[in-house]
Amino acid sequence: MAPVGRPRSDASHAAILKATYELLQEEGLARLTLDKVARRAGASRSTLYRWWPSRGAIAMEATLDTINREMSLEPQGDNALAEYRRLLKSVARAMRGGTGAIIAGILAECQRDPETLRLYKEKLVGPRRAEIMPLLQRGLADGSIRADVSPQTILDMTFGAIYHQLLLHIPTEDAWMDGVIDILVNGIAAKPSR
Amino acid sequence: MAPVGRPRSDASHAAILKATYELLQEEGLARLTLDKVARRAGASRSTLYRWWPSRGAIAMEATLDTINREMSLEPQGDNALAEYRRLLKSVARAMRGGTGAIIAGILAECQRDPETLRLYKEKLVGPRRAEIMPLLQRGLADGSIRADVSPQTILDMTFGAIYHQLLLHIPTEDAWMDGVIDILVNGIAAKPSR
Amino acid sequence: MAPVGRPRSDASHAAILKATYELLQEEGLARLTLDKVARRAGASRSTLYRWWPSRGAIAMEATLDTINREMSLEPQGDNALAEYRRLLKSVARAMRGGTGAIIAGILAECQRDPETLRLYKEKLVGPRRAEIMPLLQRGLADGSIRADVSPQTILDMTFGAIYHQLLLHIPTEDAWMDGVIDILVNGIAAKPSR
Amino acid sequence: MAPVGRPRSDASHAAILKATYELLQEEGLARLTLDKVARRAGASRSTLYRWWPSRGAIAMEATLDTINREMSLEPQGDNALAEYRRLLKSVARAMRGGTGAIIAGILAECQRDPETLRLYKEKLVGPRRAEIMPLLQRGLADGSIRADVSPQTILDMTFGAIYHQLLLHIPTEDAWMDGVIDILVNGIAAKPSR
DNA sequence: CGATAATCGAGACGGTACGTCTTGTCTTAGG
DNA sequence: CCTAAGACAAGACGTACCGTCTCGATTATCG
Fold first, then answer.
1. D183 touches chain C (CB under 8 A)
2. Which residues of B touch A163 (CB under 8 A)?
3. According to the UniProt record, which residues make up the DNA-binding region (chains A, B, C, D) (predicted)?
4. CATH number for domain B62-188, candidates 1.10.357.10, 3.30.930.10, 3.40.50.720, 3.90.1570.10
5. Which amino acid residue lies closest to nucleotide E25, measuring CA to C1'?
6. In this structure, how many other beta carbons lie within 10 angstroms of the beta carbon of residue A99?
7. Fold adopted by D9-51
8. In the CATH hierarchy, which top-level class contains the domain C55-188?
9. Using CA atoms in the order A45, A51, A53, A57, what is the torsion angle rounded to 10 degrees?
10. Domain residue spans in chain B?
11. Does D33 touch chain C (CB under 8 A)?
């Protein structure tokens, strides 16, 4: 049963997300106003408020595609730790671009608006972790990762370190990432001989 | 050489910081307005603008005492790693209170105002790290910490993990902190036999 | 061609003018702030700024009705000079009330804001003069006013005298007005026998 | 008995008046702030407040010399009306320059501050009228001015007309002034034959 | 086909905070 | 006692966004 009334305009929806993403790259989330988005998208402010609960929500949806693409990992046959190492370096690299700044902005927005935080956890943190988790599970299963560490904590430390740099506007250099990974892998790797 | 003109009012200065701290605890930095601060402090807005460059700067100064007190570490004679472990748990504990939320707010403010970020690094991150660094240096010196890890990176990972939880509004439970410390210490500890 | 967007609120518009007029009577234009107007009118400051370029403009519009009503002249069949005499006394009388003080305030505001001066000439001086001019023209036509005086100058002198008293906060008493009219009429009346 | 303490600084006093006069010419009374005066005069704001009750008072004192000089009339042996005519034209001419604008500003200021109005009447209107009055008295005495007109009213009309033009920022052209004088003199001149 | 209903744009509305400016008072040190 | 310097409380200014609202116009489904 099709809904009654004029259907939602896909063109408008897309234009809004496009405008938002452009503005995010140009000025960052802190300087983003819904009015500027609406004007650039040729939309009206009411349309924005109709479909999104908050500025953070629009920013998140506008960035999700990019984020997912840049961070995505096609699993390769290596052992878990090697693969994890490769993954982290690709994440760090992705974060050096504009995407890192956008995520930092979203994280900041989460401190002003609980709804944005909720969405952030649901749409960004959750899926990302769900994607990586199997890798760590595999490591736990095959014994390459110590059995007594929580994979969640591993992820907390990983993303914590990366995001902390982002928030301080310090680029996540490869060398730095190597250091982090080194400590991390040493910390979680099962000790062969004990 | 005595300064000319009416001297700065200590009473006003103190009242402003007090009012700011109270408001930070009650509503958080996101809801803090200079007007509310001025009104509660019995000060005028111009006085605020005279002495502080931004909202973030006031918030930082108002919180610095508390932060420094809560995070301070009186060094004890243990070995470096044990002491570090104790330190981190005390930090995590401090962050569970209102102070954690305030710091998360400041970190968010840093994303909107470069000056606040500069002050944050200078007044908060710098001193804190300078305070802890000797501990890690001691560990490096006595061989309890692997010689090939950067103490800066250790701190990045430590605070990164803690602050990441803060930003996601997840309390830094003792058990979680134990897990982090465990990975960290294992990751940085020199392996006795290899 | 119907205007697009939400239409202007007449209620708000009226409430603003009403509030302005009340405040003008209570405290005068010098003490009038847009904030007080907005608050009393239950409007927002942005609405005021949207529709009026300046404080003076609001004050003028708010007073125009009253001024026009109080100064209006229903022409009577007398000869021109007699009618002019009656008109001036009615104007002087009107100016003894609060309206005179308001006009003095507007005239003062004109010295601080060119736009207000422009509006004053366009909305107040112009119409008023246009209304009176036919009377003087009639006098000129029927020979009761000397042909070599400019009606504009007559008006300059008339209103100049009255407004000068207003600005010095000297009530325009009937006796004084009689003196003015006497000089004026003698000065402009055609001499029958020469 | 000599007064105790540091004597009033004439240099400061003079510098303040000079700075005020310059600023009045450059920007007008409406844009004049005591702060700008103090800064340009190298004085402190408290010194201004010590010696003058208001902005208007400083402006008035700063302008009085100029005004008195520009408007001054050295009486000549003509008959009263001819002399009055000459006087008015000189006043009108003086008012075409910056002085006219300054007086308009003072008149405006009088609407916001009663003290300035009081001073205006006392220091400016009074002396000026006292200076001209003998002229009119002479005319009354020698019968060239009608006995039944009040000299005060004559002055009201004269200055009223001139100031009204000033307030509307209309230059007091010689031709216009001639028209005014013509009406006035005709209005007040004793009719030889009746 | 016409009624109904939801969407869209435009833009006005009441609010709130901003950062700046000016006012009049005060508190120093020093002449 | 006066002066320069300058801090202070107060409060208005004009601007910028916010989230809501009220329109006319558009575009679909359903009777």
1. yes
2. 160, 163-164, 167
3. 33-52
4. 1.10.357.10
5. D46
6. 19
7. Arc Repressor Mutant, subunit A (1.10.10)
8. mainly alpha
9. -100
10. 62-188
11. no
